[in-house]
Amino acid sequence: MKSAQSRIKSISNAKYGYLFIIPFVLVYLIFHFYPTIYTTVLGFTDCKGLNNTEWNLLKGNIFANYQSILQNKSFQTAVKNTIVIWIMNFIPQITLAMLLTAWFTARRITVKGQGIFKVIFYMPNIITAATIAILFHALFSYPTGPVNDLLTKRLGILEGSYNFFISKTASKIIVAFIQFWTWYGYTMIILISGVLGINPDIYEAADIDGANGVQIFFRITIPNLKTVLLFTLVTSLIGGLNMFDIPKLYLNGGPDNSTKTASVFIYEQAFSGKYLYNRASAASMLMFIVIAICSAILFYLMRDKDAAALAKLKKQERKAAAQRAKSQSWR
Amino acid sequence: MAKTNYDEPKSAKGPLFYGYKVFQYVFLIFLAVMSLLPFVIMIINATRSRSQIESHAISLIPGTNLATNWKVFTGKSFNVTTGFINSFIVSTGATICSVYFSTMTAFAIVAYDWKFKKAFFAFIMAVLMIPPQVTSIGMYQFMYSIGMTNKLFALIVPAVAAPSTVFFMRQYMSGALPMEILQSARIDGAGEFRIFNQIALPMMKPAMATQAIFAFVSSWNNLFLPLILLTDKKKFTMPIMVSQLNGDIYKTEYGAVYLGLTLTVLPLFVIYFLLSKYIIAGVALGGVKE
Predict the structure, then answer these.
(1) A147-204 pLDDT, tens per residue?
(2) Cβ–Cβ of B243/A138 closer than 8 Å?
(3) What gap in Å lies between CA A69 and CA A78, rounded to an integer?
(4) CA-CA distance, A81 to A237, in Å (whole number)?
(5) Which of chain A's residues have a Cβ under 8 Å away from the Cβ of B228?
(6) B221/A47 CB distance under 8 A
(7) Is B53 on the interface with A (CB under 8 A)?
(8) Buried b (16+ CB within 10 A) or exposed e, B131-154
(9) Contact at CB, B56 and A291, closer than 8 angstroms
């Protein structure tokens, strides 16, 4: 009924709908869509050299930039690093976020002071990533950084200072840790709000049936949280694929490329050395394709299931009505 | 009434229960320390001298070297005031643009019926997750060819089209904007533009405030685009300035580095601890649909 009402009201106002989206559409076309197309085109050209804006389409093999990027050892390493660092950050992150969610939403054994814990756990997420990268660089510095001070003089775990910056493994772990540390609070809040959205009747029924806290968490909370968990997974993956600030500023992708991510690689190709805009564009488009696939999954997950079902139902009704009308006119 | 029945097992608190409780709080406090300690070290070391930091880099007792560190910090080419002003201009401009125009776009989707409305909203959802980084090369080349590099303007205007803000505002608006009020304003002879500015906007204030906080913080923290678009030192934003703290100019002057880092996060600390309630509520809202 509501839709019928609004339809009557707004027929004469349809033009304002178009009018009000003009600023968005214009700015989107100029500053977002055009650069996307431009990047795509540049991937097929010979455009390189500082601030060079003249280019020609490649003659012969038009995919030459893509081929050279895919064969580039440094790019392969960067993609591998991106995935490894993302997994090293995501698994502990989601595990801890789930544990905290279970604690903070438990109804029998409640945690006091939840509010303040949430505020503290989320805080690193809001602080400039650039600042955090430099801060951790200072914290892990050799030989007299705070972490080394703690490990040697304060706790006496190590005899001498450890140089975190020359170890490939340590560097990867630290970058992954920073990512984990900045994001677990965010993931926790998303999961908690997901749990609060679950119908409380289900929990009450479980209580009556005498289920314990662990059973409730694994048999009710997790199955009902599937969509939210997938949302977290996909958004985190997209963010992880674009990891730039922390690996770039913590050790500039080093040591020996061990923390170089795909975004750092693209930045280095395009804005340093030989300024290979064309190859950087090709690499960007490869990332773009991967992200578009991830987005598509998310889009599918978040689509309005109820609205889609309703539209389908209405369509069927209309068809049936048309059929009835048809058969009546036949008669 | 019935509730007391379920709660009865709770009164049977054995040593196991207390052990569990203790473990829980110890773990939570450990996490809280993990989140806070790096910032505590940063702030305390900003007040300590170079030799103090070199002998013991961890200390919970503040030093008396703040003034000296400030001198060392400002004595180099690092102009923190310029960074602040630039970041402030960019973040404020981008926030106003994105919140105002996103609300307007969402209003067009919610308040009117037009032919391509569904397709338009589907498009917004499709581009929601595309990060600006992957199209940065084209962005840079385009900005360079129209002479927009080194202009703060170039970081503000693109904010007019912010799909995620539109998405959020649309979700909020479709539940909170009564069409009857708009209709009665129409009968009173108000124009559509006036209806939006004087009736719809004030009703959207809570959602706009949440989005404004996020837009401001993400613009303030943005490193990638400013890094490629700005090469003139006078135009540098805060995160670019921060990235220079790692360079040779402050080599062993850790006190000055910590002070610089502290200064860059101070405004964020203030915003966060004043508005944390709204920020966390906003995160929770943004994550799940409905």
Answers:
(1) 988 888 888 888 888 899 999 999 999 999 999 999 999 999 999 988 988 888 998 8
(2) no
(3) 11
(4) 13
(5) 267, 270-271
(6) no
(7) yes
(8) bbbbbbbbbbbbbbeeebbebbeb
(9) no
| ipTM value for the complex | 0.87
Check B58 against A118: CB less than 8 A apart.
no
- B chain contacts of residue A304, beta-carbon cutoff 8 Å: 289
- Beta-carbon separation of B129 and A131 below 8 A: no
Architecture of domain B79-244: Orthogonal Bundle (1.10)
Yes or no, beta carbons of A109 and B20 under 8 Å apart: yes
CB neighbourhood size of A73 (10 A) = 8
Do A151 and B242 touch, CB atoms closer than 8 A?
no
Q: Is the peptide bond before A255 cis (omega within 30 degrees of 0)?
A: yes
- Rounded to a whole number of angstroms, the distance from the CA of A173 to the nearest CA of chain B is 16
Q: What is the number of other CB atoms lying within 10 angstroms of the CB of residue B89?
A: 16
pLDDT digits (tens, 9 = 90+) for A267-301: 999 988 888 999 999 999 999 998 888 878 877 77
Q: How many Å is the maximal CA-CA distance in chain A?
A: 99
Our CA-based measurement puts residue A311 at a distance from the nearest CA of chain B, in whole angstroms, of: 12
Nearest CB neighbour to B28, from listed A16, A117, A145 = A117
Mind telling me how many Å the CA of A105 is from chain B's nearest CA? 14
Q: By the 8 A CB rule, do B285 and B213 touch? A: no
Q: What average pLDDT does the segment B164-185 reach?
A: 87
Q: Which residues of A touch B238 (CB under 8 A)?
A: 128
Tokens of A187: 């993931």
Query: In order of start, what are the domains of chain A with their CATH numbers?
Result: 67-305 (1.10.3720.10)
Of B129, B220, B279, the CB nearest to A291: B129
Q: Where are the domains of chain B?
A: 14-74, 79-244
Distance from CA of B176 to the nearest CA of A (A): 15
Q: How far is CA A44 from the centre of its chain?
A: 28
How far apart (Å, rounded) are the C-alpha atoms in residues A261 and A296? Answer: 23
Do the beta carbons of residue A190 and residue B287 sit within 8 Å? yes
**B220 neighbors B289 (Cβ within 8 angstroms):** no
Which backbone phi and psi does A25 adopt, to 5 degrees?
-65, -45
Q: What is the pLDDT of residues B27-73, one digit of tens each?
A: 999 999 999 999 999 999 999 988 888 888 888 888 888 888 888 88
Among the residues of B62-135, which ranges form H helices?
66-75, 80-111, 117-127
CA distance B283 to chain A (A): 7
Helix (H, G, I), strand (E, B) or coil at A83: helix
Torsion angle, CA of A81/B228/A53/B155, rounded to 10 degrees? Answer: 130
Minimum Cα–Cα distance from A124: chain B residue: B35
